C-alpha cells in the first residue's frame, strides 16, 4: 500500500520554508564574537612588518645639544666622527597606532631643527662666506630645513656642511655618466632595378629560389605557379592545379619537390621530375597563407586563416601537430634547425616560438601593437626580425629577447628579407622598399619603383621579396603583376653615396 502524502496549506509550507531559512542564517545575525587580544596583536605586528618594515628603523645621527657647537671645528679639521646610531621612526606614511606596536625606551621621534639650531648652523659657515650672510634669505633657511631631514642624516656633519656650501646639491659627488652613442653603421652599396619580368595575370604573391640558384618559382593570384630562369628571366614552366590565389611556395633542398599553398585551403606537393602533384595535405579549415620547410627534418609547416599552424610529415601526409594558440589569422611561419624550431606571426599582434617536439608554445612575444605579417631569420646570427605596421623589431633567440626597433617604414609591411652582409629589406603595401643596416637599424636606402604600364597607380604593393643564394640579386613580387630584380650598384662608393649618419641622434630601444 502506498502511503498517502499529508497535504498542507500553502501558508504552512511557506512558514516552514521561512523557518528553515532563518535557522540556516541565524548565526549571521547573532552577537559578534569578542576579539582575541593576543591574536589581534599578532595580526597587527605581521601587518606592520609587511607594510612598514623598510622604514621602521632607519639609522640617523644622534640629536644632541653639542652637535652644532662642534660643527665648525669638524669642518676645519675635515675629520669624520662616528656617532652612535640611534633608531627612529620615519616613513612616508603616518605611523599606525595599535596594540601591535613594539615601542622601546630608545625609540625617538624625529624632530626638525629649531630656529636656534638653524642660526647656529648658519654661523658655522667658513669665513669665505661670511660676507654672504647678509644676502641669505628665507630660501636658505628652507634649504637648511631640507638638508637636516632624514635623507641626509646618514652623512657625517662635515659632509652635511659641504652640501650646504654647495647649495644643497650632490651633483659633484656623482660620477659623470658616459653619454649613450649611436654606433656608426656599416656602409652598404645602394641597390638598383635592372630587370622587370612580366607573365602573370594577377598579383604575384610568393617567391622561392631553388637550392642550385638556377631558377626561381612564383605563385600568383591568377592561380598558377611559374618557374623562371634566374639568369635570363625567361619563363621555363607553368603549373596549374590551384583553384584560388597561390599564397606560398617552397622548394625542398632534400628532394626534388615543390610545395605550394593557397586560398583554396589546399597544400600541394609537386614532383618536379614529372611536374605533377603527388600529395595533398588536408586539414586546414580556411585559406593557407604561408608555408616553410624544416632544414633538417622531413616536415612541412603551414599556417592559415583558421588561426592555426600545422606540422605535416612530408612522406606520409600525416598531420603531426596542430599548433593552436593564436586568436586570429596566422600570416607567416618560419622554421630553423635550432631550438625553438618554429616561429609564427599572426594578425592577433603576437609572435609565438614553438617547441616542435611537444607541439606547444615556448614563448609568446606581445610587443607589437598591430598585425605581424612577416618574419625573417638572420642567416648567420642567432636572431630574427618581425615586420608590422607599427615597427620592425629585432629579437634574439632562444627566448625572444628584444634587441631594437627599426622605425620609419610607416606602412603595412608584407615581407622581409636579409642577407649575410647585414642588409635587411622590408617591402610594404604602398610599393615602398626600405633597406636597413641590420646591426644599427640605419635606413640607408628607400626605393619606390614605378608602376608598370597598364596597371593602376594603387597597384604598387610589394607582397614578397627574397635574395637569391648568391645574395647578389633581390627578387620582389608585386601587385602590378610583375617580378622585379634588383642588384647592387657596382659604381657606387662611400664618396658618391655617403652615410647620412648623425651621431647626436640617439637610437632608443623602445618596446
Strand content: 25-35%
Rg measurement, Å: 38 Å
Question: What overall form do the CA principal axes indicate?
Answer: extended
Largest beta sheet, briefly? 4 strands, antiparallel
Number of helical regions? 8
Assign a percent range to the helix content.
Answer: 10-25%
In the predicted model, the low-confidence regions spanning at least 5 consecutive residues are 67-103, 107-111, 127-173
SS content category: alpha+beta
Largest beta sheet: strand ordering: 4-31-30-29
Kindly, what is the distance between the CA atoms of the first and last residues, rounded to a whole number of angstroms?
Answer: 81 Å
Quick check: average pLDDT? 81
Q: How many beta strands in the DSSP annotation?
A: 31
Question: In terms of topology, how is this protein built?
Answer:
Elements: H1 10-25, H2 37-52, E1 58-60, H3 66-69, H4 71-77, E2 86-89, E3 108-109, H5 115-123, H6 138-147, H7 150-153, H8 157-165, E4 191-198, E5 204-209, E6 215-220, E7 224-229, E8 235-240, E9 246-251, E10 257-262, E11 267-271, E12 276-280, E13 288-293, E14 299-304, E15 308-313, E16 319-324, E17 330-335, E18 342-346, E19 351-355, E20 360-365, E21 374-377, E22 383-387, E23 392-396, E24 401-406, E25 413-418, E26 423-428, E27 432-437, E28 443-448, E29 462-467, E30 473-478, E31 482-488
Parallel strand pairs: 2-3
Antiparallel strand pairs: 1-2, 4-31, 5-6, 6-7, 7-8, 9-10, 10-11, 11-12, 13-14, 14-15, 15-16, 17-18, 18-19, 19-20, 21-22, 22-23, 23-24, 25-26, 26-27, 27-28, 29-30, 30-31
Amino acid at each position: 500500500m502506498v502511503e498517502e502524502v499529508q497535504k498542507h496549506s500553502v501558508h504552512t509550507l511557506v512558514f516552514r520554508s521561512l523557518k528553515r531559512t532563518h535557522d540556516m542564517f541565524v548565526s549571521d545575525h547573532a552577537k559578534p564574537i569578542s576579539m582575541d587580544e593576543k591574536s589581534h596583536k599578532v595580526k597587527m605586528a605581521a601587518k606592520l612588518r609587511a607594510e612598514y618594515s623598510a622604514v621602521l628603523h632607519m639609522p640617523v645621527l644622534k640629536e644632541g645639544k653639542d652637535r652644532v657647537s662642534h660643527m665648525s671645528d669638524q669642518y676645519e679639521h675635515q675629520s669624520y666622527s662616528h656617532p652612535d646610531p640611534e633608531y627612529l621612526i620615519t616613513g612616508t606614511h603616518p605611523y599606525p597606532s595599535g596594540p601591535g606596536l613594539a615601542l622601546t625606551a630608545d625609540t625617538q621621534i624625529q624632530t626638525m631643527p629649531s630656529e636656534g639650531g638653524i642660526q647656529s648652523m648658519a654661523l658655522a659657515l667658513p669665513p669665505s662666506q661670511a660676507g654672504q650672510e647678509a644676502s641669505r634669505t628665507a630660501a636658505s633657511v628652507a634649504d637648511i630645513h631640507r638638508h637636516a631631514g632624514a635623507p641626509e642624516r646618514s652623512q657625517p656633519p662635515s659632509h652635511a656642511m659641504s652640501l650646504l656650501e654647495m647649495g644643497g646639491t650632490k651633483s659633484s659627488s656623482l660620477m659623470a655618466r658616459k653619454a649613450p652613442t649611436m654606433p656608426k653603421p656599416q656602409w652598404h652599396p645602394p641597390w638598383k632595378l635592372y630587370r622587370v619580368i612580366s607573365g602573370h595575370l594577377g598579383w604575384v604573391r610568393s617567391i622561392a629560389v631553388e637550392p642550385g640558384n638556377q631558377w626561381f618559382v612564383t605563385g600568383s593570384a591568377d592561380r598558377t605557379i611559374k618557374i623562371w630562369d634566374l639568369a635570363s628571366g625567361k619563363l621555363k614552366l607553368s603549373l596549374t592545379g590551384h583553384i584560388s590565389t597561390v599564397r606560398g611556395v617552397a622548394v625542398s633542398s632534400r628532394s626534388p619537390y615543390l610545395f605550394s599553398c593557397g586560398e583554396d585551403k589546399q597544400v600541394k606537393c609537386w614532383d618536379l621530375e614529372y611536374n605533377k602533384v603527388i600529395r595533398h595535405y588536408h586539414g586546414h579549415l580556411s585559406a593557407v597563407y604561408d608555408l616553410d620547410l624544416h632544414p633538417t627534418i622531413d616536415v612541412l609547416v603551414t599556417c592559415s586563416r583558421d588561426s592555426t599552424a600545422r606540422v605535416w610529415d612530408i612522406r606520409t601526409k600525416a598531420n603531426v601537430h596542430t599548433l593552436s594558440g593564436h586568436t586570429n589569422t596566422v600570416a607567416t611561419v618560419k622554421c630553423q634547425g635550432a631550438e625553438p624550431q618554429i616561429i609564427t606571426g599572426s594578425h592577433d599582434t603576437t609572435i609565438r616560438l614553438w617547441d616542435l617536439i611537444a607541439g606547444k608554445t615556448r614563448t609568446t612575444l606581445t610587443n607589437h601593437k598591430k598585425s605581424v605579417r612577416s618574419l625573417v631569420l638572420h642567416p648567420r646570427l642567432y636572431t630574427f626580425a618581425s615586420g608590422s605596421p607599427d615597427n620592425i623589431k629585432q629579437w634574439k633567440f632562444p627566448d625572444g629577447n628584444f634587441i631594437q626597433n627599426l622605425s620609419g617604414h610607416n606602412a603595412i609591411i608584407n615581407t622581409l628579407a636579409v642577407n649575410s652582409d647585414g642588409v635587411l629589406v622590408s617591402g610594404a603595401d604602398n610599393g615602398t622598399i626600405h633597406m636597413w643596416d641590420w646591426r644599427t637599424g640605419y635606413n640607408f636606402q628607400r626605393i619606390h619603383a614605378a608602376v608598370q604600364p597598364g596597371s593602376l597607380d594603387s597597384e604598387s604593393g610589394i607582397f614578397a621579396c627574397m635574395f637569391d643564394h648568391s645574395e647578389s640579386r633581390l627578387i620582389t613580387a608585386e601587385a602590378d603583376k610583375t617580378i622585379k630584380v634588383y642588384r647592387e650598384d657596382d659604381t657606387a662608393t662611400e664618396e658618391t653615396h655617403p652615410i647620412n649618419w648623425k651621431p647626436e641622434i640617439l637610437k632608443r630601444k623602445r618596446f
